[in-house]
Amino acid sequence: MHNTSHNFRRGSISLAFFFILLLGLAACGPSTGPSAIPSGTAEPAEDGPFAAPVDSASLFAASSNESVESQEQATAVPGSSGGEVDANGLPVGFTADGHPYRGNPDATVIIEEFSDFQCPYCSRFANETLTQLNENQIAAGDVLFVYYDYPLSNIHPQAEVAANAARCAADQGASAYWAMHDLLFNQPQAWSHNQANDTFITFAESLGLDSEQFADCVQSGKHLKAIQDDVDLGLSRGVSSTPSFFINEQPLIGAQPIDVFNQAIATVKRGEELVFNQPSNEIPPTPTPAAISDEGIAATLGSADAPYTIVEFTDFSCAACARYATETLPTLQELLVDSDQVHYILKDFPQSEHPEARQAAIAARCAGEQEAYWPMYQALFASQAEWVGQGDKTAVFFKNLAADLGLDTAAFEACQSSGQFDAAIQAGISEGEALNVGELPYFFVEGYPLSGAEPNSVALALGLPMDVSIEGAYSIGDPNAPITIIEFTDYQCPYCERHFTETLPSLMADYVETGKVHYVFKDFPLTAIHPQAQLAAEAARCAGAQDAYVPMHDALFANQASWSGQANAADLFEQYAADLGLDSDAFRACLDSGEMKTAVLTDQAQGFEYGVNGTPAFFVNGFLISGALPYSSFDQALTGMLDEMQQ
CB–CB of 362/425 below 8 Å? Predict the structure, then answer.
């Protein structure tokens, strides 16, 4: 295990968190860049660094059945026979030079994107703007969308291998490429770790691809040269950040909203130029923390002298914000705010598509005038489903919430209609837009951005405990023990074997068998480096079907050196089953059928979701601990936790 271990101390924010922010959530150059302005406005055109791109007319110079690897290209016009379509029924294929496209090859508007799969702004474009383009201009046959790789490997270490994975899917067809493209952008947190290829293989299996062919491709880095060719092409065309676009050869920079793309498409269809200030052609600098102003603050928690500051931008109509407010913030407050480690600042960022959100923000602030901001904050989110979409009725609903909280309803109602908070709320909106606030809730931790409200990702980043499901998992010890240890393991991993040999026996004797610890087993096979690990995990589960999971678990680790790397590992596993007195025929039938494969991969996917990126990894009452730590470290931590519980 090559990862550094986490600190056991509750409420601590480790330097690793800020390191994660710098690597995974750093800006990818300009996120929105200079706005595209249709010609005819007051902004003058300027000469920029962009070289003339390749002639878009040459994209389909080759015959429509020219192959990319072994695949036929689907370059048919929508509605014609023989064309390939994606899951949404959109025409897909490859250009003459092998780049994937969506849409009508004869469309009058061609959008070319240079993108990075690990760039959060590219993800925002893919999940928001591109989705709307797919449903409208691309579906209508007006736009052809072509994708180019531009991984910024200096700040996104898995971007290049993700691009390779997408191209490996492309080897099995254009629709497979776009399915993988969409999945990579939809779940970046699942693969942004140093075992990304394992996740990509799991993705390929979930998409029904030939997993063996795909695995060979990703593990060999088959398409890395072609990806570098895309980067070189982008540089030659003046690309310096992601996402960057060319619309009929005219550049447009950044994850612009759909309105900007709609205007740009209409402009080029009229034969007019997009006029905007050109960005500099520089490699994105190392990110610096954003400066957050004191304007527009809705409320705060904790001491202003705390060593760390978290600023949240929220929308009371946002379902993800409600989930964060009810599931994560209370724990964060207990562990970090109340211990004076974090000063928490809240700012309003009501979205235009949520018409009641601004009124809810006003209601919370008006409750704050009577020292009840946070009770109203919780009440608004708890009752969100009751008032969202109610239009003018929300004012009465909010007044009733104020009454339930024991507030002076006359004063509350007067405050609601006074307009006294309009400027402050607008200040938060303007600042959020300037800071390129994305998916809500959106956070700045010491100025570094963190997007999204999944409790596990926020908890991982902030060092909080996570609620890891153990339903259906094999375990030992008392399920009602005060401490639960969940181990994610790989049977072929030497560090996991070390934990099994050197640490687990003492944990068993001192904590599990004494009723202090419930010990749970989870699978996390690192198949890219341990080719027999998946089969070994399945073998343990096949033994578990005969009530012998733990004996087989022990036999696999005790004999790791004998079966690791052996082509006949299945035969050896069958022998272990026989030695344990199991029905070896039933065991082998189970192993050969692959019936346990899904359960193993489900564990692995769960591990990725909770931040596991190496083995062994442990969750001790929800806190992630990485590495084959010595027994003394576990003993010290567990003793401290038990002592704290008794206080």
Answer: yes
Any bridge partners for residue 313, and if so which? 347, 442
Q: How high is the pLDDT of residue 629?
A: 85
Domain presence at residue 470: no
Q: How far apart are CA 413 and CA 342, in angstroms?
A: 33
Residues 103 and 210 in one domain: yes
Tell which residue, 541, 526, 529, 615, has the closest CA to residue 573: 541
Number of domains in the chain: 3
HEC string of 184-211 equals: HHHCHHHHCCCCHHHHHHHHHHHCCCCH
Domain residue limits at 112: 37-275
Residue written as token pair 């837009």: 433
Is residue 458 located within the same domain as residue 480? no
The whole-chain average pLDDT of the chain stands at: 83
CA dist 490 and 440 (Å) reads 36
The answer as to whether 7 is a domain residue is no
pLDDT band, very low/low/confident/very high, at 144 (cuts 50, 70, 90): very high
3-state secondary structure of 522: strand
Show the tokens assigned to 140: 């209508």
Which element (helix H / strand E) includes 444?
Answer: strand 442-445
Question: Backbone phi, then psi, for 332, in 5-degree steps?
Answer: -60, -40
Q: What is the pTM of this model?
A: 0.49
Written in H, E and C, the secondary structure of 549-587 is HHHHHHHHHHCHHHHCCCCCHHHHHHHHHHHCCCCHHHH
Q: Give the span between the Cα atoms of 342 and 282, in whole angstroms.
A: 36
Q: CA 146 → CA 107, 120, 178, 246, 581, distances in Å? A: 12, 20, 11, 10, 59
- Whether residue 195 sits in one domain with residue 340: no
